[in-house]
Prior knowledge:
Two copies of one chain form a homodimer.
Chain A: H1 12-21, H2 28-37, E1 43-45, H3 46-55, H4 62-75, E2 79-84, E3 87-91, E4 98-102, E5 108-111, E6 117-119, E7 128-141
Helix pairs in contact in A: 1-2, 2-3, 3-4
Bound molecules: manganese (II) ion (2 copies) and zinc ion (ZN) (2 copies).
Chain A binds a DNA duplex through residues 25, 27-30, 45-47, 60-64, 66-67, 85-88.
Amino acid sequence: MSHSVTLTTLDDAGVAKRLCDYDILPTRQRVQIARVLLAGDQHLCADQVLGKVKAAGSGVSKATVYNTLGLFADKGILREVKVDPNRVFYDTNNSEHHHFYNIDSGELSDIDPGRILVDQLPEAPEGSVIDSVEVIIRVRQQSIPDV
Amino acid sequence: MSHSVTLTTLDDAGVAKRLCDYDILPTRQRVQIARVLLAGDQHLCADQVLGKVKAAGSGVSKATVYNTLGLFADKGILREVKVDPNRVFYDTNNSEHHHFYNIDSGELSDIDPGRILVDQLPEAPEGSVIDSVEVIIRVRQQSIPDV
DNA sequence: CTGGCAATTTAGACAAAGTCCAGATTGCTC
DNA sequence: GAGCAATCTGGACTTTGTCTAAATTGCCAG
Ligand SMILES: [Mn+2]
Ligand SMILES: [Mn+2]
Ligand SMILES: [Zn+2]
Ligand SMILES: [Zn+2]
């Protein structure tokens, strides 16, 4: 069993169990949000999650979506990715990995782990301790070269 | 002469010349903003720049501060650092380097170049091309260990 | 059961950061 | 000095997210 489950076919009971594993009380709203998220590896922002939950016919308020995403991130079932000053992405892949960010399309994608290596990590400034190391490779749409 | 000038004693004429070097027409407002910025190596957000300009007794509008910071970044005299979803930092050090970001204090600081090395850069996704590579080391205030 | 109670959810007000616009200013050039 | 393009400006507006106070829900003791 992998740590980052990506089954499309996760029923409410399965989702609830998974939430419990992360010490999250599985309310109706949390299960609905988790179902949308755990449908596969994704990088979604709060708005998109709200849209998908609503599209799925479930009624969940904006405040609850924000509360829940924050809770999920705290509990470690999701990872926040802060790469764009306008929105936080929630990453269903909670293992250590880095990202490409397409500044034209706004699309975030994983960098194949092992395809990058950060060496010689420096000491954190006096009085602080490292929390996370994040590599972001910003990419642009390739422009057509002149013929 | 280094590329990133950090003189505290840069007069209006000097600043204006520097703006011209970057192909920026030195208006009164742009010079005032540049004086605040080029006073030393700093990582400031728009609000802080606006505050400093106003504190210096110069009248510059919010819209002009935003326009000008964007222009300076486009022209390459400043670098935008996107590490916090709430604000963009403007870095007066426009050379390639990476950052520590203290998530408790909100302080951004440079990583000594050469103290970090990113290896085995992966290929950009099909149809895209690398724009920049950014390493962000998030740090926390060190908690006091139990006695 | 059933009232009590804490946790959760909700609508909508609010806030922070940034963008946009239409009119005013500025700085050339002729 | 008039004409003109670039720039600047106040303030309305947008986006993303937070906050609050009231309603709902889920549990549990009695
Ligand atoms: Mn969004
Ligand atoms: Mn913002
Ligand atoms: Zn990811
Ligand atoms: Zn820097």
